[in-house]
Every structure is written in C-alpha cells, then in structure tokens.
Design goal:
Elements: E1 4-8, H1 20-25, H2 27-40, H3 44-49, H4 58-78, E2 85-88, H5 92-99, H6 105-122, E3 128-134, H7 138-145, E4 151-158, E5 161-167, H8 168-180, E6 185-188, H9 201-211, E7 223-224, E8 231-232, H10 238-245, H11 252-261, E9 266-270, H12 275-283, E10 288-292, H13 296-306
C-alpha cells in the first residue's frame, strides 16, 4: 500500500497565472479564491492572475501562495486523494496545516497574510540578505559561518543546496569565505528580508499574538514541522513551532528524510513550480514525485496513483 505525502512549496515559487484554471474551471477552486478575497479585502484572483508588482512582495506573496495551494488541494481531495502525512517549506507549512486538519483554510490564509506583513516590516530593506550556497556540504558550511557573527543557515534544502541568511555585510563576508573554502557558487538572492534568521525573532513573537486568535486542532494526520523536521501529532505544539519557524532554519531535507523513514513512497507537490521535486531528486531519486500545478495535472496524478 502506497504511503502519500502532500508537500507544499514556499516563497519564490509564485508565478503570474497560478491557480487560474482551478478558479475558472472548478467551483471548489473558485470558492477558495473568492473566500480569500472576502477575508483579505483585496482581489486575490487579480493578484494571482494579472501582471502586477505585488505578487512578489512578501505581504502579498504568502497569502497568494497559500490560497492557490489550498484551492488545488481541495480539488484533489474532492477526487478522493488523501495524504498520510503533510509538509511544507516555510510558508508552505500553513498549507500542510490545512491538509492535516490542524487549521481551517480561512485561518491559514488570514494568518499568512499577517505573517507576511510582520516579516516584511521586521527588518528595514537593505539591512538583511540571503544567499544560496551550492555544492558544499552542510557541515562544512556550518563550520565556516560559525565564526561570522550575524549569519546562519536559513534552509537545508537538499544535498548541495543550502541557503544562508542574516545581516547583509555578514552574508556577503560568508559568501566570500565559503567560496574560498570550496563552495562551487554563492548566489545572493533577490529577497526583501533576511528570512529564517535571528533578525526575525521579533516578527515571530508578534506572530504569536496573531496565533492567539487562531483555533488549532489535533492533527488528523501528522505533519512535519520545519523547525524540528519531526512529526507533529499534538495541537499544543503547533503555535510555538510556528512562532519559532519565522527565525529558525527550515530543515527541509531532514523533513523529507523523516517521511522516507516512515515509509512514504509517493510525494505530491501541490502549488506552482517544481522546486520541491527538484530537491527530491537530490535527496532520494527512487521515490515517486508527482506535481499539481495545472488542473490537467489532477488527472495525471489520479492515473499515476491507480497504477
């Protein structure tokens, strides 16, 4: 019997037009987008489907991504596909919370809207930075940056791809030292803040106040937390982990390894792009990875699962 994980991408995967066919061709998808518009006070279809500058601004990106992925998930669920476990990268964790029955779609969308605003406001533009370090072992990166104040690992994405985050000068210094130490490339990322670094601790604390108003339920299925890369089965753990997540490392590779150890053999990436599928090829090439990006992909997934 196949064990299925729903996995959700994070910020950076957004693209104009994402979810449009789900909105235009399914009542379920349309209802999610229209409800998000009611909750947030601006047109989410317009944000997602028309060329604009807001889609790449954190305070809008996060709500747009979660709305899109939840709409896709609801359509897939309506076809009878249910996950055994869920996980998401950074803001994608809120989609996993929905899939696991921990948080309602309304609460997931409204909470990430506030999360995006808090993260956007936490550090003035230009003070923080992030960089992708390619083809260098995580332990070696940790060793090099240990002596550089103001920089830390933000994402353990997969073997050969680690993201660092922190004060701009510290990240730039770290990039030079990492290249000297053998990193193939160190690429500064076009982001609006030093996400998943200590500079966002205050944003996490403010997010805690937002979460006080949110009802969380005991997970119907386990989800994997970014902070610990461990299964969460107790509702009491949810909010503290989400507060920490904003300023802690995203342990995505370790999260996938935890699901693999639990016998998950089919991963369905739900959302725009194939970022997580790319990571999966470097973590374990032997497992089945499917994608829901367009409405037509739903039938492809159903066919693959029936085999």
């Amino acid at each position: 019997m196949s064990k299925i994980a729903f996995i959700y991408p994070g910020q950076g995967a957004q693209v104009c037009g994402m979810g449009q066919d789900f909105y235009e061709q399914t009542e379920i998808g349309r209802a999610v987008f229209d409800r998000a518009t009611e909750l947030l006070g601006f047109s989410v279809p317009e944000l997602c489907f028309t060329e604009n500058d807001r889609l790449d601004i954190t305070e809008y990106t996060q709500a747009a991504m979660v709305t899109t992925s939840i709409a896709m998930t609801k359509v897939l669920e309506s076809k009878g596909v249910k996950p055994d476990v869920a996980a998401g990268l950074s803001l994608g964790e809120y989609c996993a919370l929905y899939a696991a029955g921990v948080m309602s779609a309304d609460d997931a969308i409204a909470t990430v809207r506030q999360r995006g605003i808090l993260m956007q406001e936490a550090v003035p533009t230009g003070l923080g930075a992030m960089a992708a370090i390619l083809a260098m072992d995580a332990a070696a990166i940790e060793e090099v940056i240990a002596d550089i104040e103001g920089v830390q690992i933000a994402n353990y994405n997969c073997p050969g791809q680690i993201v660092i985050s922190g004060k701009k000068e510290a990240v730039e210094t770290a990039c030079e030292k990492l290249k000297e130490a053998g990193a193939k490339r160190a690429i500064m990322l076009n982001v609006s803040g030093p996400f998943h670094s200590n500079m966002l601790t205050g944003a996490g604390e403010k997010l805690g106040q937002v979460l006080e108003q949110v009802e969380v339920h005991t997970p119907a299925i386990p989800y994997v937390a970014n902070v610990t890369a461990a299964y969460v089965t107790d509702a009491a753990d949810v909010k503290p982990l989400l507060m920490k997540q904003v300023s802690s490392s995203v342990r995505w590779q370790q999260s996938v390894e935890a699901m693999l150890a639990d016998g998950v053999d089919t991963f369905i990436e739900i959302g725009p792009g194939k970022t997580l599928a790319g990571f999966m090829k470097k973590i374990d090439r032997t497992v089945k990875v499917l994608n829901i990006e367009k409405l037509a992909d739903v039938d492809v997934v159903l066919e693959a699962l029936a085999q």
